[in-house]
Input
Amino acid sequence: MPVTRVRSRLARLDEWRVAKKIKPGQRGAIKLSRAHGQELLCVRYRENHDGTERLTTVELVIERSIIQKRDDPIVLFKIHSHELELRNEAMRRGAKYDPTRRMWRLNRSEVLRMGLKHRIAVTSEELLREHVHA
Output
């Protein structure tokens, strides 16, 4: 039986169920391992909804890079004394109260997740930076 190449415009992969997934070097993926080498992660056999056609797909590594994580600085932010639920939520996330500044300290990412970006205090360094660049 001749092998028919399926054009990608004809085959939407979300309409095909994965019938089998195999690792490089396993039976059924050896030829593809030879062709793609270390870049081959897996081979998938997919079937259409009625099981009359099969696609063979490969997953390849095309790029590897090191992720540079951003700093997550501690910021000061305001919670009013009557906002007890908000204060409790901040404390659950690890916030500490700074009595000298009358503000809370927490990682910026957590303050943003709480939806309190508008309450983050501007530091004196940031004010100076804005003044110099203005």
Remarks:
- The chain has four helices and six strands.
- The mean pLDDT is 86.
- Strands lie at 17-22, 40-47, 54-60, 74-77, 96-98, 103-107.
